[in-house]
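the two lines:
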Amino acid sequence: MQDDDATSFPDVLAANAAYANGFGLGGLAPRAARGLAIVTCMDSRIEPLAMLGLAPGDAKILRNAGARVTEDVLRSLVLASYLLGVDRAMVIAHTNCRMAEGDESDVHDAVRDAGGPDTRSLTFLVSGDQNGTVREDVQRVRSWPYLTGLEVGGFLYDVDSGRITQLC
Amino acid sequence: MQDDDATSFPDVLAANAAYANGFGLGGLAPRAARGLAIVTCMDSRIEPLAMLGLAPGDAKILRNAGARVTEDVLRSLVLASYLLGVDRAMVIAHTNCRMAEGDESDVHDAVRDAGGPDTRSLTFLVSGDQNGTVREDVQRVRSWPYLTGLEVGGFLYDVDSGRITQLC
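prediction for all of em together
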């Protein structure tokens, strides 16, 4: 362990010690009890379980910037589907998402304006048509030949109201 | 909307309507209030916020099969770091993880035994040395030139005790 690591996380590690002392999830099975996988954004305002009435043990949760169906998500969904009890998946984007404002060049500019490096060799998967992108991402899962048994829906979560609307 | 989608998610959509009626997170800012990103597994037994004493609004949460630092995670961390207030990140694997049992061929065999397709053209990122893999993934973040300002630590979460141990 490097000294700088030891000093970067004292608050959350102290909180974890308290969590472990009162731990009540020890008996959960590894399979998703409600047969559900959720693909959503990394956004700090989203509560994937609470917003769907779920509890720990119920669902596999996949999260990245923009709730995009990447190769990483497809890989994970195969494992969830065949080995971990998942038979339905929700792709849930959200309103007021930084990945749905403008286009790739806008985000490259924003990173540079924030003091970051030139990121133009990266692709951030920004979408100027969020609802259309959710439909395309859902179609990507549906048409992926490794996931034939999975029911998939596309949704938008409103961060101001907490309400989820089904798009496809 | 396709009819089959409308019938696959009635339970969770009904629960969301109740969640929205009692919604209390409407005022949250999009930046991570505690400056934290968490990279962890999709596993249904993990509560990323509760296990670290965090609340909605505090952290960006990235999840995939195995808590692996993929291109998707790196892309997301750049956005979190420069645009969303993140200056520290935790990579948190967990005990009893399907992605840390055996090797790639064992998982391909398990998918086939579960009635799935031949997945040998896919890479699941299975690790036979979980602690070593966490250290390598942390090093991958540290050495990525697009993320120079980010403090990163590697951790193991024990699903039986709720306790997190720092590895690096």
